[in-house]
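Entry 14: structure prediction run for Alkyl hydroperoxide reductase AhpD. Input pasted below.
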Amino acid sequence: MSIEALKNRVPDYAKDLKLNIGSLANETLLTPQQVAGTFVASALASRNAEVTREVLEEFGPKLSPEALAAAKAAASIMGMNNVYYRFVHMIGGDYANLPARLRMNVIGKPGVDKVDFELWSLAVSAVNGCGMCVESHEKQVRAGGLSTEQVQAAVRIAAVVHAVAATLDGEDALARETAAAA
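Run finished. Output tokens:
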């Protein structure tokens, strides 16, 4: 089990992350597709190869090929949109009135239920820290029938996956530095 592999790599000082990632892998407030897609999109957004590999090993088989592609697409398109719309939000002025002129076709036709894609986009936007996108996607999933508890569950998954990735990145950087100094 790949979540187990991640839990085994998390240092003891981050025991809470081990507990959280294990329980969130079995989250019951969301559908199995929503859980799996949120893990995949969040792992890709967290930019850690090991976390992404282990999450894909665990959750990839639980998704249809279309849902797996959509979860990856959510991470990809939000990687672009979160930078652009965070800029628009931070700078203000006339930029909000200009068309983005960026292709975003996958948002209109994600290949899965629109609410699921929006939920994955919300999780990635939380990881990437784009308030404007978080607000927009939260409004969409709520209008699509998801509860505040379901939205919270997805963001909890994103937060923990990102924290595991950051912790492993830090530990790996320290190990490389120590090895180089030896």
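Notes: The chain has one domain: 2-181. Will compare against the previous run tomorrow.
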